[in-house]
Amino acid sequence: MCVKDLLGMQVLDKDAKEIEKVEDADFNENTGQIEKYLFL
């Protein structure tokens, strides 16, 4: 998945209701893993 695809994605709760959208994400430079999300 590309970062541009991740930004703006819906965040759903356990009942599949939209609660937020992904605004930004912090990545580990060495591993490429996502460390933090920022929600709008």
TrEMBL record:
This is Uncharacterized protein. It comes from Candidatus Methanobinarius endosymbioticus. The lineage of its organism: Archaea, Methanobacteriati, Methanobacteriota, Methanomada group, Methanobacteria.
